[in-house]
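hiii so um. not sure if this is the right channel but i have a protein structure encoded as tokens and i wanna go backwards to a sequence. like what aa goes where. can anyone help
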């Protein structure tokens, strides 16, 4: 990749976000040919989600609170690409940007820290800022008491002792080399992950062919179709859906890339009513759309 200046990567400033930005930078350098390794600059951008760590996420704007300012930095030309956690990215891409790359995905699963699921006593105190996690845990264990938890991974782990368990993304623990004493990684059959969880999403300006070409080269051809199928599910629900929703796509039993199976979850705002469904097909994005429509119809009938 040849550029007239350094390639500027916009990112949030948390330890996890910086790990992600540097990971993408390494991939770009490794992909570039001899003599073409780009000079890369990491640019930290504060987002509304970083500035307000007290309010529940759903009260301050949901997914977009962690990405809007990062996207603006690219749109205004202060940066060239934006690196996000795919789970934080709303389904609708702003005009002028393109989702140019989804690199290799990490572990998509959720994890309990502080207790196993079976080890939680009746009325146990579980902390999470995600209504999606609350809804699915409530479906499994309606006896649990839920508490709000915000902050970066280090902050949340430091607060874990105040509760019987907290819920975090397994990939975050792995990427930051965190090893709490008790970790129960929840299978997808127990808790369906957030759309795109464990994956990175890299955007650039729609008219920046140099950046787009470099990012296309680091897209994972195996994982990207699955994440894009999950994002189609979210988009069909209405972008940044306010209802607790989850979806996880995988290839069929023979791992053939022409057969995608997706499991979805949708709950009411009260968390009491919920639906889970699995659909499959050869076009992942169509599977995601149909799954969203079917779940929504079943929940609202």
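sure thing!! here u go:
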């Amino acid at each position: 990749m040849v550029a007239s200046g350094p390639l500027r990567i916009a990112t949030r400033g948390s330890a996890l976000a910086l790990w992600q930005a540097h990971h993408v930078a390494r991939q770009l350098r490794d992909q570039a040919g001899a003599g073409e390794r780009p000079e890369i600059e990491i640019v930290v951008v504060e987002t509304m989600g970083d500035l307000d760590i007290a309010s529940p996420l759903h009260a301050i704007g949901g997914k977009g609170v962690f990405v809007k300012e990062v996207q603006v930095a690219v749109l205004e030309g202060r940066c060239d690409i934006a690196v996000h956690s795919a789970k934080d990215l709303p389904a609708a891409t702003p005009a002028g940007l393109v989702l140019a790359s989804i690199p290799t995905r990490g572990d998509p699963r959720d994890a309990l820290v502080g207790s196993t699921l079976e080890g939680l006593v009746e009325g146990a105190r579980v902390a999470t800022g995600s209504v999606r996690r609350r809804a699915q845990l409530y479906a499994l264990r309606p006896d649990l008491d839920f508490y709000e938890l915000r902050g970066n991974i280090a902050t949340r782990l430091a607060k874990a002792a105040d509760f019987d368990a907290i819920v975090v993304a397994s990939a975050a623990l792995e990427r930051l080399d965190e090893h709490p004493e008790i970790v129960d990684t929840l299978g997808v059959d127990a808790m369906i992950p957030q759309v795109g969880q464990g994956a990175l999403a890299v955007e650039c300006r729609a008219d920046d062919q140099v950046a787009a070409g470099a990012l296309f080269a680091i897209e994972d051809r195996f994982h990207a179709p699955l994440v894009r199928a999950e994002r189609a599910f979210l988009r069909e629900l209405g972008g940044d859906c306010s209802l607790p929703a989850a979806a996880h796509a995988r290839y069929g039993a023979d791992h053939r890339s022409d057969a995608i199976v997706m499991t979805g979850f949708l709950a009411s705002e009260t968390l009491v009513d919920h639906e889970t469904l699995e659909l499959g097909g050869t076009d992942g994005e169509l599977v995601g759309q149909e799954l969203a429509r079917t779940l929504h119809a079943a929940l609202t009938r």
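oh and The chain has three domains: 7-103+199-220, 110-186, 234-300.
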